[in-house]
Amino acid sequence: AWKDNMRDVDKDVPAITKSFVSHVQTSLARQPYNLDTLGAYQAAALSVRDNLLVNWNETALQYTRRAPKRAYYLSLEFLMGRTLDNALLNLDLKQPYAQATQKLGFNIEDILEKERDAALGNGGLGRLAACYLDSSASQELPVWGYGLRYKYGIFQQLISPEGNQLEAPDPWLDNQNPWELPRLDVAYEVRFYGNAERVRDENGNTTDRAQWTGGQEVLAVAYDVMIPGSYTRTTNNLRLWESKPKRGFDLNSFNAGNYEGAVESSNSAAAITSVLYPNDSTGFGKELRLKQQYFWTAASLADILRRFKNIGKPIQEFPDYVAVQLNDTHPTLAIPELMRILLDDEELPWDAAWQIVTNTFFYTNHTVLPEALEKWPVPLMEHLLPRHMQIIYDINLFFLQSVEKKFPGDRDRLGRMSLIEEGFPKQVRMAFLACIGSRKVNGVAELHSELVKTTILKDFVEFEGVSKFGNVTNGITPRRWLDQCNPELSALISSTLKVDKSVWLKDLYQLEKLLPYAEDAAFREKWAAIKQRNKERLAHHVETTLGLTINTHAMFDVQIKRLHEYKRQTLNILGVIHRYLTLKNMSKEEREKVNPRVVFFAGKAAPAYYIAKLTIRLIVNVARIINADADTKDLLSLYFLPDYSVSLAEVLIPASDISQHISTAGTEASGTSNMKFCLNGGLLLGTVDGANIEIAEEVGESNVFFFGHLTPAVEDLRYQHTYHPVPIEEKCPALAHVLNQVSAGLFGDAEVYEPLLNTIRQGDHYLLSDDFDSYIAALAMVDEAYLDRTEWVKKSIRTSAKMGKFSSDRAINEYAESYWNIEAQHIS
Ligand code: 26V
């Protein structure tokens, strides 16, 4: 029924054919009879875009007319992946588009493959933002995203013959992007540098207000990306800012004969949005990154404020119409920026301004790793954003006064809680600023949210009260991560439940009704056959893209995520080596009883993360040796798939029998791919960490494979490593043997891996030597369980059936109800 109202939308095959052909001729200036598949993709995308625009305009119009409270999701990363398939499925137009393009001689799946990923993100944090946009639109919530339109997204990963990661730029916009609408009319000026002069009152005393002048001004220009909901007309907006020089060139320098200088200033403006920073967790202190953050928050807030002013309400009511979610600390400058606007432009008194600010913002923390907590050098802030630095000092002054009032004389506490960390240079602690400037603070899984309260923000819980601190466990969109990536499983679920997917995809708890079918042999057979075909689809993909042949009768074991010491890909590869050495020592008869296994890795390392890159090199070289070993290659093979992306994940995840989520306990805030694998019937091998814990709570511990020390033990174990180290030969002989084999050059390059191996031999911050034995034992349990295929398929069905909680619809509704206080707006 929702589609009946889409009067102007092309819904049937003739109308779609007509719009497709017309785009070929008039938008692409080509002839339908000699069109290639890329051209067909472009024409299909433009045609679908027309349909989206109808809904997008109507949604915007209704939001303006009704003026409901809206929420804005500020994220420096949106890892969207491809759009066409998702849009077709959300609009329920895939069938007619497949038929129309078929008639014109194209296969829709080939067309879909022509699209490039929009990879404007690093990993989990950026993909979460993309899932939340899909869920917001699907739940008909008035939510807009704000981000940056990077010219280059996450780098393209190449693997050299030696196994080294090489980075190449990702010029994703080269083929034109049909999914964005340039809004050259929506532009704001953003200032950097210059001087901030305090305004004085009639007695000559300084006030809360200031004037910020001079410096550099650049333009922020809007590009809008349509976000269609699933089975609804609601089509929200993702607004991405591009930086431009305010004038094409600086006339003053030009006239002074300084042509290069003139062009340089225009280059430096364009540089702001040129590239996504590829190092998640380190790399603060770079002026350009801070410039990105301010550029984006300033433009977004100006846009939000202008929209609020159009409603015509007094500024005090701002928080009744606007909620702003800060995705990590990256947009924290929005807090002093809104203060600046309210104090200097709106001329509000300090307390009134602070009241508005602290009722507007909400802060999500995504990591407790100390090295990943953002801090900015005070001298850099003073230079780039002099007015904001003043405001941060003022916020700090008033804040510390109130702490002193509650805890008189507690100097240590004041030092710990100050927004300014002492040192050379002094640094601004962004997580603290985000915390005190927000209405609510949340973590992304139960354990993580507890850790936020008891570690990094402990003092703030004591000062502000625990009720400010909450949890919203992450979620994933079942549209992309089930219906789109695993259409056969989706169809089986619909036919088994006798419920249309338009219903269960938006009410994922309905999957529970699959539970009884775990006992149904015919259903199990269908379930297993789909998994098998997904494994073949992956094998085909690897064959055509990399020229490698994969044994699809083996168990598929997958670890795909950013390379990070805490995620312990090293533990996995050392486990693979252990398995290889064990196989080599077996007799022929013993080998016959072994369960064949194919291990897949994929993931990018930050370009300057030396140890992570060494791990990739080790994986690639272990693969080279063991895939060539005739004794074992049928039983164990290993692949590092280069250039991990959302689209590659969509092929890998449905093909996995087991996936690994093996971070040191207490380090992985949530993880979201764990949810994706389980939703697709892959079992989970993991540590008691992040959302693994809640997955186990849902599916039952008998359906997951857990190992390793628990979070409370970690601190102690690290203490032992530092102050009472035990030689690794004594502590974990199995691991020592594996390390020695690598050192001895079994995989070539004997010396090359020493720095990586030494992180384990000395210090072992991520506790590989503490968890190795239980890891190997867990892998053995996995093998054992896989031998009983009936029982395995039952586990697979039960796992998938209990994933309802992990829909991002549930998560976004928690934000909407508990934090933002916004309501669904039905667009008819
Ligand atoms: C930090 C930095 C700092 C330097 C420059 C670039 C950059 C980019 C991202 C980050 C944030 C790292 C935090 C993060 O990505 N956390 C992940 O968030 C996921 C979604 O909540 C969660 O599932 C993962 O467990 C968590 O690691």
Automatic annotation (TrEMBL):
<dbReference type="GO" id="GO:0005980">
    <property type="term" value="P:glycogen catabolic process"/>
</dbReference>
<keyword id="KW-0328">Glycosyltransferase</keyword>
<comment type="similarity">
    <text>Belongs to the glycogen phosphorylase family.</text>
</comment>
<keyword id="KW-0021">Allosteric enzyme</keyword>
<dbReference type="InterPro" id="IPR011833">
    <property type="entry name" value="Glycg_phsphrylas"/>
</dbReference>
<comment type="function">
    <text>Allosteric enzyme that catalyzes the rate-limiting step in glycogen catabolism, the phosphorolytic cleavage of glycogen to produce glucose-1-phosphate, and plays a central role in maintaining cellular and organismal glucose homeostasis.</text>
</comment>
<protein>
    <recommendedName>
        <fullName>Alpha-1,4 glucan phosphorylase</fullName>
        <ecNumber>2.4.1.1</ecNumber>
    </recommendedName>
</protein>
<dbReference type="Pfam" id="PF00343">
    <property type="entry name" value="Phosphorylase"/>
</dbReference>
<keyword id="KW-0963">Cytoplasm</keyword>
<dbReference type="InterPro" id="IPR035090">
    <property type="entry name" value="Pyridoxal_P_attach_site"/>
</dbReference>
<keyword id="KW-0663">Pyridoxal phosphate</keyword>
<keyword id="KW-0808">Transferase</keyword>
<dbReference type="InterPro" id="IPR000811">
    <property type="entry name" value="Glyco_trans_35"/>
</dbReference>
<dbReference type="GO" id="GO:0030170">
    <property type="term" value="F:pyridoxal phosphate binding"/>
</dbReference>
<keyword id="KW-0119">Carbohydrate metabolism</keyword>
<feature type="modified residue" description="N6-(pyridoxal phosphate)lysine">
    <location>
        <position position="676"/>
    </location>
</feature>
<dbReference type="GO" id="GO:0008184">
    <property type="term" value="F:glycogen phosphorylase activity"/>
</dbReference>
<dbReference type="GO" id="GO:0005737">
    <property type="term" value="C:cytoplasm"/>
</dbReference>
